[in-house]
UniProtKB/TrEMBL annotation:
Catalyzes the condensation of isopentenyl diphosphate (IPP) with allylic pyrophosphates generating different type of terpenoids. Homodimer. The active site is at residues 21, 69. Belongs to the UPP synthase family. Binds 2 magnesium ions per subunit. Keywords: Magnesium, Metal-binding, Transferase. HAMAP family: ISPT. Its cofactor is Mg(2+). Gene3D superfamilies: Decaprenyl diphosphate synthase-like (3.40.1180.10). The lineage of its organism: Bacteria, Pseudomonadati, Thermodesulfobacteriota, Desulfobulbia, Desulfobulbales. This is Isoprenyl transferase. Its EC number is 2.5.1.-. InterPro entries: UPP_synth-like, UPP_synth-like_CS, UPP_synth-like_sf. GO terms for molecular function: transferase activity.
Length: 250
């Protein structure tokens, strides 16, 4: 078991992103409806948000519903939306108390009115909090996000605000939903699949990726600390040699 004291406070990821996968299979393994897995998954969300806050993670992005997930059976989609809404309602007080700033990345116009309303209210109420930024990826697709940035930039060029040649990496990053936030250092996917599923394609270009077979409803504090400990043992080279990053020239 990993304890928070076992972690090196100097080498914490500033931004952790998680693909919370495996709810449906977890429930099916227990002969329960898939939605039961999503409900228990919401308890994991609570646990991981709280643990992030305690460890001192500054930014946490949770993939809760993808742009592609709209294709699921209507009953599962509406069940997920209801769980999301009650999660937001029940957690607002806790977020306010714990200095958690809620943000959303994704196409929120596609969300049902009721969900959008509570979401926008929670975002507004927590906007000035400074301890942990919690990004919920809802109706999110990375390719859509990049297309949206391209459209915003094209519009600014057309309006004469921007020269085409001035478009660089920083400017593209500044037009993504995550503008102003650090790139994820650690990207975790639970549930055993080893793919990104259209998550943070731009932002994760140098993220350390951690795959675990643990299904999301079982992914709690201890498994999370283990992932962070694994991250702390990696050598991030960013294209340089090992020697360069271990002994930077003085
Ligand atoms: C992740 O769990 C939650 C969402 C995608 C909303 P899944 O529902 O994808 O669970 P599996 O992958 O079918 O087990
Ligand atoms: C990715 O999981 C999206 C979320 C966790 C919200 P999926 O279960 O939808 O991914 P695929 O379809 O198996 O790639
Ligand atoms: Mg899945």
């Amino acid at each position: 078991m990993v304890r928070p004291d076992d972690l090196d406070p100097q080498r914490l990821p500033s931004h952790v992103a998680i693909v919370m996968d495996g709810n449906g299979r977890w429930a099916q393994q227990r002969k329960k409806p898939r939605i039961y897995g999503h409900k228990v998954g919401a308890d994991s969300v609570r646990d991981i948000v709280q643990s992030s806050r305690e460890i001192g993670i500054g930014h946490l992005t949770l993939y809760a519903f993808s742009a592609e997930n709209w294709q699921r059976p209507a009953q599962e989609v509406s069940g997920l939306m209801n769980i999301l809404k009650s999660y937001l309602v029940s957690e607002l007080e806790e977020m306010e108390k714990n200095q958690i700033r809620l943000r959303c990345i994704g196409d929120i116009d596609r969300l049902p009115d009721g969900v959008r309303k509570v979401l926008l209210n929670s975002i507004e109420r927590t906007a000035d909090n400074t301890a942990l930024t919690l990004n919920l990826a809802l109706s999110y697709g990375a390719r859509d996000e990049i297309c949206r940035a391209a459209r915003l930039l094209a519009q600014r060029c057309r309006d004469g605000e921007l020269a085409v040649d001035s478009i660089d990496q920083q400017m593209i990053a500044g037009h993504l939903y995550t503008a102003g936030q650090p790139d994820p250092d650690l990207l975790i996917r639970t549930g055993g699949e080893r793919r990104l599923s259209n998550f943070l394609l731009w932002q994760a270009s140098y993220a350390e990726i951690y795959f675990t077979d643990i299904m999301w409803p079982d992914f709690r504090r201890d498994a999370y600390l283990q992932a962070i400990q694994d991250f702390q043992q990696r050598e991030r080279r960013f294209g340089k040699t090992g020697d360069q990053v271990r002994r930077p020239p003085t």
